[in-house]
Amino acid sequence: MAPRLLILASLLLVFLFALHLAESRPVLESDMFMMSERSSLLNNSTTGIDCGGECARRCKLSSRPNLCQRACGTCCARCSCVPPGTSGNYESCPCYANMTTRGGKRKCP
Where does the secretion signal sit in this chain (predicted)? Predict the structure, then answer.
């Protein structure tokens, strides 16, 4: 009985060690590239536009400011521009004006 228990315990330890090795893989260069791309989209540091500040300005009179700022932030990150004023003026940022939802409505406030 004791040898069986020893073999089972050994197999369990080997399995746990293999599982630990599989989950703790090293970070690859491609993973680092994807993380830096995601970070640059959020910060928008390549264009120098402050999406947070621009969207706060754009959405300050909105009846639903949180929804407005979330949509504006997405549009700003993709287009690197936010139209002036609190509404309209889409001609100054065509990318912002051309984004639509699945239902065909304008995505960007």
Answer: 1-24
Cα–Cα distance, 54 to 69 (Å, whole number): 9
pLDDT in tens, 57-96: 999 999 999 999 999 999 999 999 999 999 889 999 998 8
Which structure tokens are listed for 4?
């069986």
CA distance 102 to 10: 56
List CB contacts of 46: < 8 A, sequence separation 6 or more.
Answer: 40
42 occurs within a structural domain: no
Between residues 104 and 19, which one has the greater pLDDT?
104
Q: What is the spatial distance between Cα 14 and Cα 11, in angstroms, rounded to a whole number?
A: 5
Nearest by Cα to 78 from 65, 64, 97, 60: 97
With respect to residue 30, please indicate whether it lies within any of the assigned structural domains: no
